[in-house]
Design goal:
The protein is of the alpha/beta class and 304 residues long. The chain contains ten helices and twelve strands. The two termini are 24 Å apart. The active site is at residues 142, 235, 237.
Length: 304
């Protein structure tokens, strides 16, 4: 089934080129069903890349999903055409009176800053507080997961001695969890971050469930006991070349960066990477959307 997006969103051509069923707003208006309403707060500077990655994952389900894109108004990205933001993005003031079946809060390249040093932190806190009463289930990704854990539960993020960078093995701790239905006992996922949350902090915090971990990358998946908040510390939505682009970008800047772990064959950056996380990443987004949004959200969104 399709994902419903604006007719002229750049991601449309990319997804259609991959034979992904994308439904335009015009066609969707002629179907007598209620699509799931999902709001994406995109905090990444590479807006179009991140949009496309997440939309690709949301599209591969038997559900019709109506997506809205949200940006911060307290900080304007310098890396995206203003026309794109004006055409496809909304602000919190425009949506604060609405309710949503699901929401995704992305990561952001600000993890070395204290939360309160982030320019849009106050606005993000207001949005995260709003999700408690206006969103049925919220999925936080990477820095967004660390921000969510800190805001909702007071879990601190911890600095790493060097960037955690590569593709790592993970273990499912709760195989009966619907979020990991269809997963292998061990699965792989990309990470790219300078900070982490500690497993001991998660286990000692009332109201949280630890679902999956990695021996090398630490905590991967956490959720609230009521399944209203999910926290994923990696990037299961990443494209095949995302880590490569980050690696070459950092190297060109003269930054200390090692070859991403378990990514290039033979650790040779001249060879194309091998994708080992695509199926697990798709399952994670599909399972969240199906079991924690579609299956449990009220038909009348006013009852969220």
């Amino acid at each position: 089934m399709p994902i419903k997006i604006p007719d002229s969103l750049p991601a449309r051509a990319t997804l259609e080129g991959e034979n992904i069923f994308v439904m335009t707003e015009y066609r969707a208006l002629h179907q007598d069903i209620r699509p799931l309403k999902v709001l994406i707060l995109n905090l990444m500077p590479t807006k179009i890349v991140t949009e496309t990655q997440i939309l690709r994952k949301l599209s591969n389900t038997p559900l019709q999903v109506q997506v809205e894109l949200l940006r911060t108004s307290s900080y304007r990205s310098q890396h995206i055409d203003e026309d794109h933001l004006e055409s496809f993005y909304t602000t919190f003031d425009q949506v604060r009176g609405r309710k949503y079946d699901g929401m995704i809060i992305t990561g952001a390249p600000v993890e070395n800053l204290d939360f309160t040093q982030v320019e849009y932190w106050d606005e993000l806190c207001e949005i995260m507080e709003w999700t408690r009463s206006h969103v049925h289930s919220t999925l936080h990704i990477c820095w967004g997961a660390q921000a969510g854990l800190y805001f909702h539960y007071g879990v601190e993020k911890r600095s790493l001695p060097e960037k955690l960078f590569g593709v790592f093995d993970h273990r499912v701790l709760k195989p009966n969890s619907p979020l990991f239905r269809g997963f292998d006992d061990v699965f792989q996922a990309p990470h790219s971050r300078y900070t982490e949350v500690w497993e001991s902090d998660i286990r000692s915090t009332p109201g949280l469930e630890l679902l999956a971990v990695s021996g090398d990358a630490g905590v991967f998946a956490v959720k609230s006991e009521d399944s209203r908040q999910f926290f994923i510390t990696g990037h299961p939505e990443y494209d095949p070349d995302t880590l490569a682009r980050e690696y070459f970008r950092d190297r060109e800047k003269g930054l200390q960066i090692h070859v991403p772990y378990n990514y290039f064959p033979g650790d040779d950056p001249c060879r194309p990477p091998i994708v080992r996380w695509r199926s697990a990443g798709q399952l994670l987004y599909t399972n969240w959307l199906n079991y924690y949004v579609y299956q449990t959200t009220p038909y009348d969104l006013n009852k969220v």
